[in-house]
Structure formats: structure tokens, C-alpha cells
Write a structure and sequence with these properties.
Number of helices: 3
Distance between the termini: 60 Å
Strand order of the largest sheet: 1-3-2
CATH class: Mainly Alpha
Number of domains: 1
CATH superfamily: Winged helix-like DNA-binding domain superfamily/Winged helix DNA-binding domain
CATH topology: Arc Repressor Mutant, subunit A
Strand content: 5-15%
CATH architecture: Orthogonal Bundle
Radius of gyration: 19 Å
Length: about 90
């Protein structure tokens, strides 16, 4: 046991069944393509319909984070007349 060679193991990698949340959000916004923007509820419904493997309970938190990150990175914008904060209101692709 002390001198026997041990074969190195490859790290266990879990296959993704869906793309990252921010990618799914941008895809949902491009698919909806509404002039006034798309609501967070409509984005959530689109993601759950297209990617049934997504956990609906975790999606609530992941969607909030993805929307915040998208706004801070400049990938997403709010419509001009929007005064909403957080994950409420409407969003558009910049």
C-alpha cells in the first residue's frame, strides 16, 4: 500500500443541462423582443418553458442575480419610462 502507484483520478465534472442564467435571460429578451421591454415574470416563464431541467425554486434567486449582473455589466437596460428597482419592472437587451 505504501509503495503502490496510484493512478490519478480525473475530477468529476457535472454536465450542464442548460446555459448560465444570464445567457438564458438575454435569450428570453431577444425572443420576446417587445418595444416596452419584458417583465421578469415573462422572462421566468420563458426560461421554465424552454429549459424544464431548471429548478423553479432556485430560478427565483438566480434570476434576481442575473438581472442585477446584466444591468451592472450593461447587457440589459430598463426602458426609458421605467422607475422600477431590483428584479421588478421591465428589461430590454442593450
Amino acid at each position: 500500500a505504501a509503495g503502490s502507484p496510484v493512478a490519478p483520478r480525473a475530477p468529476a465534472v457535472q454536465q450542464r443541462r442548460h446555459p448560465p442564467t444570464l445567457t438564458m435571460v438575454v435569450e428570453a429578451l431577444e425572443a420576446r423582443c417587445e418595444k416596452r421591454g419584458t417583465s421578469a415574470v415573462a422572462i421566468r416563464r420563458y426560461i421554465l418553458a424552454k429549459y424544464p431541467s431548471v429548478d423553479a425554486v432556485r430560478l427565483k434567486h438566480l434570476l434576481k442575480r442575473a438581472l442585477a449582473v446584466g444591468l451592472s455589466r450593461g447587457l440589459l437596460v430598463r426602458p426609458r419610462d421605467s422607475a422600477a428597482l431590483g428584479a421588478s419592472g421591465r428589461f430590454k437587451v442593450s
